[in-house]
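Hi U.,

Before I forget, here's the chain from the pilot set. I'm dumping it here mostly so it's searchable later in email.
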Amino acid sequence: MYGYNRVDARPRTFSEWYPPMSHENEYHGSMIKMLELIWGEGYMAPGGPGNVAKLLRGLETRDKRILDIGCGIGGPALEMARTHEAEVVGIDLEAPLIERATNAAVDKGLADRCSFRRVDAGALPFADQSFDIVVTSGAITQTENKPELFAECFRVLNPGGHLTSYEWMKSSEPYSDDMHYWFKMEGLTYALETLDEYRIHLAGCGFVDIDVQDSSSWYRIEVEREYDLMKGELYPRMVELMGRKDADHFVENWRAMAIVCRQGEMRQGYSRGRSPA
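Structure:
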């Protein structure tokens, strides 16, 4: 337990610990620098191009239309366009991220195959049956009304199209103080659920061929490697990029994340479902 003196034994809800956030500009400059340093240029979730390949494994992508929900600064969407030869539309709630992604598409000569737009939370601004594949990597993690988002993904998919996602999840146990401390260090909106709950949501929306896979063992190793790098050889570069105060914050953030991953509280998983043909 880190930094908490509990005065009562009643379990508190997430909203009692942390008031609701607006999702507006949660990803500030120092955080983006940190995520790119540890996860690669353009990436705000772990795994890099290898994670994109895993999300799209077994799917026909050439000249297919892909919607990337929660595209961030565009790394995964650009990889889908460049390597997987898809036509990609990326959407996100935060305007500064969309601006970065749009500029990156132009700089890399991919603006003809990869476009980005800011959206509001809620219904997706696309017609029914607009995409062949919907991809998310972290967007569902931060969405409280998951059934609504899954239903919107189902609506915009062509018959036979696929939803494929990589998300951060939780165990079935109540949050520990270690978990609450990590949430505080992150400073982001999280609405974590279990893999079983994802399966139920997908089925409830009409998806078939549902597949959910726990990938926690992979990131449990990876987060330890990242933490060692951040407190070691990457630390001087972190200080140079964002100053000592923010660098120290992120080292502590990763220490806290390594603990909850090691304990099996913070988990990662892949989910996939198909719209019936």
